[in-house]
Amino acid sequence: MNQKQYSVHGAGVGLRRSMITELQDQPPSQVGFMEVAPENWIGVGGVIGKQFQAFAEKYDIICHGLSLSIGSPSPLDEAFLHRLKRFLDEHNIKIYSEHLSYCSDDGHLYDLLPIPFTEEAANYVAKRIKRVQDILERPVAMENVSYYAAPGQQMPEIEFLNAVLEQADCKMLLDVNNIYVNSINHQYDASEFLNAIPADRVEYIHIAGHYEEANDLIVDTHGADVIEPVWGLLDQTYQRYGVIPTLLERDFNIPPLAELLTEVDRIISLQDKWQSADGVANKAKQA
Prior knowledge:
Blueprint: E1 11-14, H1 20-25, E2 31-36, H2 46-58, E3 60-64, H3 78-90, E4 96-99, E5 102-104, E6 108-113, H4 119-136, E7 141-143, H5 157-168, E8 171-175, H6 176-185, H7 190-195, E9 202-208, E10 210-214, E11 217-220, H8 228-241, E12 246-249, H9 257-286
Parallel strand pairs: 1-2, 1-12, 2-3, 3-4, 4-7, 7-8, 8-9, 9-12
Antiparallel strand pairs: 5-6, 10-11
Helix pairs in contact: 4-5
């Protein structure tokens, strides 16, 4: 199993402004780290800025960006990247991740659009990721995204993903729910995809709920409970690669904290299961 050392540990939740009061009043001991979208917090002062600083002092914070638009034909927003670097440094942010997609050209599109799965696109995106890493002076973790069409596709998704990660020499944010969603929408085997990821590049995992539009169409929403097949895929991930820090994504329809934490507890239960199994295996080797 994977013995890699990670920047964060255990199970995490997304820090949303609507949750701040509840989190302050009932600090969850089982939460090991929190994730924020930096675009929502850069430059924020006053009471909310102080509240964020308090969370950053108590919990490990990771950032999951929304607007990098790494696959866009437009130039990188380097002014934003320099502001982002100051924010990451100021708050001792452990990890910065982004989507392997694009969301802008002349303007912001407010959606994550798929990059064509081609060798040319992989080369283009990898060069841009390298530039981002140079500016930020730290590795970036790129997330496998859900997509609903594959315009101009010349290679399988997993080959494109692996080509980008290798050429950019970057990290990966493994979204287990996105693997499941894409496996249904594009009719591939989720376990085979999972088995082909470069596990040594994975920094942490996302798990989330989705909406079933039809038997063959699932929409990635982050607005519902995680379903059993996705829990099963997370279990497979730990079994194959060892326990990896895992964040529960919930962006809307957010339930009361106690209810949300039941899913965090399930992540921890799976992690404990495979940590125990790993410990038994190690003892057996030493016997």
